[in-house]
Amino acid sequence: MTTQVISGPNWRGVRALYQMEMARWFRTLGQSILSPVISTSLYFIVFGSAIGGRMAAIDGVPYGAYIVPGLILLTILTESISNASFGIYMPRWAGTIYEVLSAPLSPLEAVMGYVGAAATKSVILGLIILATARVFVPFSILHPLVMIAFLVLIAVTFCLFGFILGLVAESWEQLGIVPMLIITPLTFLGGSFYSIDMLPDPWRTLTLFNPVVYLVSGFRWAFFGVSDVGVGVSLAAVAVFLALCLAAISWVFKTGYKLKT
To answer: What is the reported pTM?
Structure first.
């Protein structure tokens, strides 16, 4: 009589990767949290307090409160990409990536460790930014559970995107190109500081091709119940981008692209 041993997921390996990435983050906790919090606070002081008092309400929401979801996402998107891309590019650059590839970890488990840690950092930072915003402008969250769901889903999705960036980047400089030259402009032009309904045609129509519009709109709906596009469309857009990121990561690990050379 033979006994079959069914091996399950290597949760110990996933936990080791997760703890390693979180420990690295805690070693630079001051820089990791203070820098984005100070930057976001300046936005609230200038746009929320100074300018917001002179701006008319948008869809019945005071301007200072209206920009809160957009400013949170501005930080979440850039930090998610930066944390995840650095987490995987560092072992590639140092040559320790081969230890991960030779470990008894499946590609899915490696992604869970790295991306899970990066997403945790982003969610924590998002909640800190949310608490910071409450100091400067009064607001309430109409759908808190939906807000948390959007926050987690967006953080995971863009951490996956950052993970892909860290896999294909050839230099440290390339890691900063996408957050600085692509994500930040798209966020500013994606309705973070205004409603796209305020734009005349054809600019409003062109803005709908900006994927960040759907993230900001859905996230803002969770706060105030107002949005530029339907919340279902926003969720669908995030789900599609998440699926594309998962497919890209699966292909990278299957082919060994940028990992085995």
So the answer is: 0.86
